[in-house]
Amino acid sequence: MRNALSVDLEDWYHVCGQSRYSDPDGWGEYESRVTRNTEKILEMLCLGQGPHRATFFVLGYIAEKNPALIRRIAGQGHELAVHGYYHRRVFEMTPVEFENDLRASIGVVEDITGEKVLGFRAPEWSIRGEAKWAFPIIAKAGLKYDSSTVPLTMMGERVYARLPYSMETPYGPLVEFPLTTFRCLWENLPFTGGLPLRIAPYWYVCEQIRRLNARGVPAISYIHPWEFDESHPEIDLPFSRRFMHYFNIRSTRRKMEGLLRNFRFAPVKDVLGL
Fold first, then answer.
1. Domains and CATH numbers, the chain
2. Helix (H), strand (E), coil (C) string for the chain
3. What is d(CA 160, CA 126) in angstroms, rounded to the nearest whole number?
4. In this predicted model, what pLDDT tens digit does every residue of 152-185 receive, in sequence order?
5. Residue 144 and residue 107 in contact, taking contact as beta carbons nearer than 8 Å
6. In angstroms, rounded to a whole number, what is the distance separating the alpha carbons of residues 228 and 129?
7. Is the pLDDT of residue 110 over 90?
8. What gap in Å lies between CA 169 and CA 186, rounded to an integer?
9. Residue 63 and residue 109: Cα distance in Å, rounded?
10. Is 176 exposed, middle or buried (0-12, 13-18, 19+ CB in 10 A)?
11. Which of 13-17, 161-165, 259-263 has the highest average model confidence (pLDDT)?
């Protein structure tokens, strides 16, 4: 069975909620390391049962500054979806601001690749609370799926569905592919990307994916280019966020290489049959 592999294509300084790094006017001061780190991911995707294809949720800002990288990703058969333009959390924008940001990111990616963009992922899984107004806007922009919801209390809403499903909007259906979790007592716990992947024992991650696949359910994994760069500049973050951002970062590549050897992966659009 094929599982979905996704890459949130952003640079090391794209951190929400930190005033020093949130202003795009200041981003030119920082060394860009996104191309070299993405090349490591593209090389890794040839391992195991590969070559594997993935979905790259790219920031419009990154696409505009690095068109050659975007063309290289597309040329290797990967899907290009969008991650917003300026890496702003959805619940911090108005509906008009979000729609403008979304359409700008779609426009720059489609201009570079010549291919229609089908999917979106919000920075920091930020479609939650009152920001559910974003779903119709995503469909209105012509996208077919979203992958922004997290069915657990701290990062999203526990009432969100755990498995992919289709929702109706005034602009047509929109498929949602939530972050993969497993049920543990009263909470759903993630394990396929970010800090949860870096903390969880590798054998346990494999076992949970196999259990899902045995039920005919695909998992979705996610990584960031900066997780493949142990020497990138560290941002001065509050302890809890620093822990989430940097803890055991060196394990990301090792664990992903293992998953690529043991499972089949494909772009989100292919796993969803879009």
1. 2-269 (3.20.20.370)
2. CEEEEEEEECCCCCCCCCHHHHCHHHHHHCCCCHHHHHHHHHHHCCCCCCCCCCEEEECHHHHHHCHHHHHHHHHCCCEEEECCCCCCCHHHCCHHHHHHHHHHHHHHHHHHHCCCCCEECCHHHCCCHHHHHHHHHHHHCCCCEECCCCCCCCCCCCCCCCCCEEEEECCEEEEECCCCEEEECCEEEECCEHHHHHHCCHHHHHHHHHHHHHCCCCCEEEECHHHHCCCCCCCCCCHHHHHHHHCCCCHHHHHHHHHHHHCEEECHHHHCCC
3. 13
4. 866 766 678 889 999 999 999 999 999 998 877 6
5. no
6. 32
7. yes
8. 30
9. 6
10. buried
11. 259-263
Confidence of residue 25 (pLDDT cuts 50, 70, 90): confident
More confident site: 244 or 258: 258
Query: What percent of the chain stands above pLDDT 90?
Result: 72
Cα distances from 62 to residues 31, 93, 228, in angstroms, run 13, 20, 17
Q: Which pLDDT score is estimated for 158?
A: 65
pLDDT tens column, 218-236 = 999 999 999 999 888 888 8
Q: Which of 210, 208, 209, 195 is nearest to 248 (CA)?
A: 195
**Tokens representing residue 164 in the block:** 């992919």
Cβ atoms of 254 and 42 within 8 Å: the answer is no
Q: What pTM does this model have?
A: 0.94
251-262 helix and 34-44 helix, angle to the nearest 10 degrees: 30
pLDDT band with cut points at 50, 70 and 90 for residue 240:
confident
Two structure tokens written together for 112: 């570079």
